[in-house]
Input
Amino acid sequence: MDLELTGKTAVVTGASKGIGKAIAEVLAEEGCSVHLVARTEADLNAVRDDLNTRFGAQATVHALDLSQDSGIEKLVEAVGDCDILVNNAGAIPSGDITRVDNQTIKDAWNLKVFGFVGLVRGIYPKMCERGDGVIINVIGMAGERPRASYIAGSMGNAALMQLTRALGAESMDHGVRVLGINPGPVETERLVRQARINADMMFGDEERWRETHKNLPAGRPGKPEEIGWLAAYLASPKAMWVSGTIIMADGGQHSRSPRAW
Amino acid sequence: MDLQLSGKTAIVTGASKGIGKAIAEVLAEEGASVHLVSRTEADLNAVRDDLNARFGAQATVHALDLSKPESVQALTEAAGDADILINNAGAIPGGDLSKLSDDDIKEGWQLKVFGTVGLIRNFYPKMCERGDGVIVNVIGMAGERGRGAYIAGSMGNAALMHLTRTMGAESMNHGVRVVGVNPGPTVTERFQLLARANAERQFGDPERWQETMSGLPAGRGGTPEELAAVTVFVASPRASWVSGTVVMVDGGQHSRPPQ
Output
């Protein structure tokens, strides 16, 4: 399927590793020039060089902290006329409501929630003015199926899902699509690190980390490339009529029943 | 993007026109061989010949009325080892509860709801046994946002959405995915007929049918091609981590505030 992405410009935040890197790779393979955003320049340079080597892709690096307004302003100024914005950066820490005070929640939301909001605020009107553009918010399943032990993330993700629906419901009138992807657990470095900690706690052996995922669909987390393919498709003109919705990408886990009594 | 559909076998019900025909076309273009199912052999033959001429695709015709259990059986016997099953056939008639008896509702559900259920009952275990397969249900936005004047369709679509989620939540343990696609208003021949009737009523002129869609996103309905592209993507191995969910394809309309 020709995704008709050749020559399009895409911005991917959190592009130095994990899901963001996987999305940047597929977009580059499909012919996009990609703006890679994260805090660490060295990591981004490595991704840029890899995309150039493997796909001959044009990639530009922006080492910025998007939890700061100044970071958002700099990025919007540099790439505000992009065709595709992929909001992906942001990991909200876990904790239940007794453990996370209000300041901790606000701090946690500065990158993921307010980072996404700030970039949308800066870039969405430009896309509407051009009559063309796609914004993809990579959010997270806890916004759909919350966990008390991950309260700041559950709330923050839900907020981003509503942002996506509210804007995406009207954006087609301006030729723009706004949509989301909700990944479940995905096998990134961060996930493996946590799984090793869990395996050490559960089995006394961190090498058994894959066993901590045996209750997931197909007994495994998602692969970063599985989110990458989905994001690239959704960013493409071949998904022209998809807006104002969040696609669940977790092997079906979110639709499972809670444990039976 | 190589959707990795080359050499796969897909069944498309309701393939003689509209969204089903568009789905068959995209599948054929991607290298799949397609089993085309609907009631009218002549219409299916035309689609088969067209797919062969344009894409060199292998397509097989099954003229069957899937509202009949024996037809569900016949299709299972003919194409039981298909990689992909796309349940698309079925148009539930409108009406509110005061107009529809229980029998009217059951009859309205016979093709779309029970036809889909019957095919899934037969195909799902075979797919699980193989450890591989995809079922895509093309349902309809009324299952998410219902209307009193379309009560049988609202209920029936909701039932199919929940079938999709419930089975798709567990199917990955068997290497099988079950996914839904919810079209909003989509400009097929049938839709145009209804829109022309509306335009006649509203403007006294059926030619102004496109104006009846001015309140929709971008002032238009979806195209069969747009619905087909999403359906074929979710049916492909590139959507390998998508299961147990229904993808809304309506330009965002379902997320608008209520009137």
Observations:
- The domain at 9-186+222-245 of chain B is CATH 3.40.50.720 (Rossmann fold).
- Chain B touches chain A at residues 1, 3, 26, 30, 165-166, 168-173, 175, 177-178, 217-219, 222-223, 226-227, 229-230, 232-233, 238-245, 247-257 (CB under 8 Å).
- The CA atoms of residues 164 and 244 of chain B lie 6 Å apart.
